[in-house]
Amino acid sequence: MFNKSKRKIVFAIVFSLLALMTITLVTIYVSNLLTIQKENEEMLRTFTERYSLEAQPNLPVGDKPEGDIGVPTDAPPVPRDDGKNGRNEPAFRLSTFYSVAYSKSGEVLAINNGDNDLQSEEKLLEIASTAMAKTKNSGRIGNLSYLVTDRGDYTLVAMIDGTINDNNQRKLLWLMMGIGGGALVVLAVLSVFIARKIVSPMEENDKRQKRFVSDAGHELKTPIAVISTNSELLKREIGNNEWLANIDYENERMSELVQQLLSLSRAEAGELPKERLDLSQLVTGETLPFESIAFEKGKTLESFVTEGLHISGNANQLRQLVSILLDNALSHGVDENVTLSLTLEKRSIVLSVSNGANEISEEQISHLFDRFYRADESRAQSGSHYGLGLSIAKAIAESHGGNIRAEYREGKITFIVTFPNKN
User: Fold this and answer.
1) Given this structure, which CATH class describes domain 272-420?
2) Where are the domains of the chain?
3) Which of 119, 136, 115, 117 lies closest to 127, judged by CA?
4) pLDDT digit string (tens) for 49-95?
5) Which of 44, 175, 299, 322 is least buried, going by the fewest C-beta atoms within 10 A?
6) E-state strands within 284-356
7) Global pTM exceeds 0.85
8) Rounded to the nearest 5 degrees, what angle is found at the Cα of 43, between the Cα atoms of 40 and 49?
9) How far apart are CA 393 and CA 96, in angstroms?
10) Distance (Å, rounded) from C-alpha 322 to C-alpha 336?
11) Strands 300-305 and 337-345
């Protein structure tokens, strides 16, 4: 139980850190990407403003003009980058621009390939044509960001190369993932230590409680035996009377309670030896005696047991588990029908016992397996039921690697025990 709690705490911490780290990395990456896109768009606007078609040689595709392309010789001086105009002039000068100018009739007037061989004129024409066909006048195609501008007599498609920025973005992403992954590993190890610190006091307290129950049960056996012996001696001396009968009755109830406490202690400790068992045969054998008990109470007990189901466990504890569930159903069921089934579902062996019951809330269901809990307080003095049976059933199920739960639907309550199937 506490190991499961530790795993849940570790999972919660690691999942929270992973979610926080993912959100942080995505936010940084997207923010950086949007910033770069905005800067590229600003530089494209600057390039468009400084562009002069008159400075472009109107040559057929494939011919490369000499000299500066896109900046006329009589252009005004480049403004200084004083930080007030929102443009990064050094980044502008270091960037690689391309452009294609179209006449209103769609004729190519000029191509600027940036004086390098990174992009061919045919490729620039293909990208420019695609950009012209789009509804938005700006965007990205491949590693090129573009801006389509109507210049009155012609249309200019300006492009900027984003290869370097893309590489930097990828390096930044891998760097963040590496640092984040390393930090996550460190924090995961730290979370294990934190989980142990959190659970350790509760685990120690639980051990003390179990030790107290076991010690108290053993210590109580002696006075119970003494009371029983003295009662027998008094009967021989003075004969039976109502006072001695009351002593015997309460002494027997105390003896049964001690036995249940010791059974609970042993089940929670999981110290009993286990062996390979035919669970189907064991359940069938334990069900048979309860059929006659059901008949005496005017009820019917139906059992549906799948043959050949095996499990590694302690036979006595598993019989006790079946006995507890059947006794609970026959004692507290409000109708005449009790149903037991043992089936194989996927990778689990499922034992279920169902009986009619008065309406029970989710709050009550959550406490059914607590020690000394009774959903109906009127049963406080009912026979040998002390509210420990389902606690013992839960401890037995968990000591065999399984679990137990209760479900209430349409006037019936069903106790479901699930064991792992290791066949």
Assistant:
1) alpha beta
2) 2-167, 272-420
3) 119
4) 888 877 765 444 444 444 343 444 333 344 444 444 445 677 777 77
5) 175
6) 300-305, 310-313, 337-345, 348-356
7) no
8) 145
9) 76
10) 19
11) parallel
